Amino acid sequence: MRRTATRTAAAASTLTMALVLSGCLGQEQESDAGRNADAKDVTLTITSNSDAGGKNEINARWIEEWVIPEFTKQQKDKGVNVTIEHDGIGVDDADYKAKVALDFGTDIGGDIVEIDGIWLGEFAQGGQIRPLTDVVGDEVDSWDGWDQIPDAVEALGAFEDQRYGIPLGTDGRVIFFNKKLFAKAGLPADWQPTSWEDITEAAVALKKLPGVVPLQLNAGTAMTEATTMQAVLPLLAGTGSEVWADGKWQGGTDDMTAVLDLYQRIYQGGLGDPVLQQEAKGRDKSFEMFSQNKIGILFEGDYLWRGVLSADGVAPMADRDTAVGWAKIPARTPGSGVDGQDFVSMSGGSIRVINPKTEFPQQAWELLEFMNSAEATKVRLGDTAQITQRDDVNAEVLTGDPMLSFVAEEILPITRFRPGLADYPKVSAALQQATADVVAGRSAAEASAAYQAAMVKAVGEDAVSGG
Amino acid sequence: MTPRQVARRLAYTAFMAVVLAFFAVPMLWLASAPFDSDPGLGLRWPDWTLTNWQVTFEHPYALSSLVNSVVLCVVATAVTTVFATLAAYTLSRVRIPGRDALLYVLLLLSSVVTGTAAMVPIFVMMFQLGLTNSQYATGLVIAGGLLPAAIFILKDFVDSVPRSYEESARVFGASPTQVLLHVVLPVARPGIATILVWAFVQAWGNFLLPFLLMRDVSSQPAAVLLRTLRDEGGSANLTVIPVFSLLYAIPVVALYLFVSKRYGFRFHGGIKA
Amino acid sequence: MVDAPPARRTGRARDTAGIGVARAVTFVSPALVLIGLFLVFPALWTIYIGITDYTLTGTASVAPKIVGLGNFVEALDDALFGNALWLTLVFVLGSAVIGQNFLGFALAWLLRGARPALRRVVESLVLMSWILPSVVVAYLWIALLDRDGGTLGALIGSPGTAWLVEYPMASLVVFNTWRGTAFSMLLYSSALAAVPPSQLETARSVGASGWQTVRDVVFPHIRGHVLTNTLLISLWTANDFGPFLLTAGGPNHASETLPVFIYQQAVPSGRLGYAAAVSVLLLLVNLVVSAVYLLLLRKRS
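^ Those are the sequences you sent over. The predicted structure of the assembly is below.
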């Protein structure tokens, strides 16, 4: 009797769990874009990976101190009572993503949610977010702000040719170098390499300086996405290949092996510091070392300039404006880059999407428009400079900053974006692992073969090129 | 003293010195970095300043997060200690079939639930129950994970309290509740105190549950806030972290000192299989 | 279980405290309700997720499919899982079974006769390392082992060694010994109080060495304590997430114990089904540890 009871209980609980699992995690509601359009009392929540006092503080303060009061006032004048909340907490991207994913599965997520552009595909394929025209209606396409957003930037918020969200801005990858160390090593202050060979030659010259790491090219799994974004993808683009092309992911091709071979030359040839790559806080450390004149050449995004070395950055460099130089990332050899380019770069950025489950789709869109107006964008920057999504704002705010103007003018036209597909995180992890293998001492050919095998396992043989 | 005794004495002193150094040296950072003008991930004689403290106190959520932590942990600790004591006492004194096996199974399951893999069930369940964004509910979830180990330790502890005390109290007409309150509890106090500190420490350090279950940064506990102390790009903010770490450590240390002074802090013949 | 009707009688007979059935239920149920709701239910649900291909995002997050034992088969074939399992065993054996156990016992044994002041200082320091929050402790140890400014490098006069990169597992074992010795020390000091002083006296009078005394006189008395202690600290260590804060599993998976592996799979990779299956495997490892412990305990009686 006892046994039967146990069994019944077990069956019942399994059934309950199955029901709960399928019920709560898979609901997808068909909804009317015009619902609650005339509501007089509206509550909206903005979810972001930022908080005042922590990560992305500027963004959090802007939302709390400008967007919320201003939008509330604007709506009040129209006779609508809006209450906006900011659900923001700045943590690791992976943790934030997990939280947003759980939110999308239930009903407590924000109405406007900030996500990394690279997650768009995963959420779109899962149906957790939907095209703006579905959620809000066709009037989305007639927003005048779209004209101000360059197509490449707009693509950050698009998936399969449909707009899902509005980007917050973008960035670009360059090669930073320390002019003081360059002078000591007899290298020019206006250095602009035109091939990988030029880079390694400069590194060899820098190697003579004591206590200096000649070249920091992010590698390994500890650096996570920084490895992929700052180093592997720009290098790969310099071989003429893209990580995702013609419906296939880049496998262990000759181009991939060439990238890994550069890693091998750098890390097994004493041009980089292999240990730094493997420390849990290696990237922070590389910032600190660069600001202390201990790294000659560093592959990084413009964040290094505006957020790290600046006076209020994590590793301020007092003589940043005179000591730091920057150059475009060259293709392997002139003309060998994607589309025959001589120079390449990679860009990314966050986007804001509207939660399809919002109770107030029209008002959420209105708020999103408001947050992306030229005025709002300018206020968001305050006295800082950053490449925003809007051309009109960039034209104004970037003039005083030579580095960011350089990115806007020279880098954005040649840059590429990562493919925002559900499988991308797995591919990125495999790329990081391949570089980790080389740093740990394996040959480029071995690492490339292991990468090919990992890719086949991760995304399936049909979706991998080469091998 | 014979040479042999001298040698022993020296070996003993050397061992204690090494142990003291081993346990003390890692903590030095907590004494120097909060007061250093340029705190780094390393130890050095500080370039004394209190600026870090000022910056930390000006942080909009730093101090309130400590208050949130206290609320959360008091709930989790009180629930764990009280419920575990009651359950452990009963399980020790009343023979229930399959008791030991049940305790082991629960102890093992607690390892699954405290892992990251259980985050979806817990999150969805709490959402369905309408219990998200509540300090109290989050405290209860934490307590649920701590209870098996707490009962396990306390039961062994109560097992070692001689039953003759209770029997004589019964002879003098004390009710079972009185026996528990006036006979068992005083004897078991150091063990309960240990569990109390242990539960508090566990709850105090829990990051994932409050992070997922609380919606508002202003109601997040210190364990979560400590992970948000980053700059725009996500690099650690070393101006605030050392000071905040120190502030964050003080309540646990204070609780330990208080409890150990007042109730003793040892297993006192407890944990015995 | 066969004696359902007399259970009440035997129950009463053993119920020396006179708790009674009604009160027993009242005392036990609050704990059981909480455990049932917040522990057993999510745990069973996690096990269920372990047989699906459920993911955090993407298509499988909306319509997860049952894949049966697929995740388990994949794990057993996954070199990284094997690596994590091995590292977990090393971690448990090195830091808990050997490190915390021996250091904890040594401290308890040697502090018995120590001056109260010394005893208080040592005990407080050891306990402090146990109660400090893990995030804080992680910063302390990163500062200790740092390559450039690390305290350890400065102390032993060899700066430039990146301990966490070059010797990740050894560092973690030492770290966790530091972190958890307090529990063993507390437990053994109370256990030692139960060893009859007369027997220790006898051992001394026949000229037994310290080691002989421990082996022949003390150990038989505290055998049960040793086993319980080893079980608890093994389980805690096997499930400890602390290594993540120090090394994040690196370099190149060299310190990726199972809890770190599970986190990597569940959060950054979003493979919840797979992570849940690995959690179940971790549970099985724990089960084996407990079974060995129970077996040893039974052998005693």
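Residues 173-346+420-465 of chain A form a domain with the D-Maltodextrin-Binding Protein; domain 2 fold (CATH 3.40.190.10). Residues 1-15, 22-30 of chain A have pLDDT under 50 and may be disordered.

Shout if you want it in another format.
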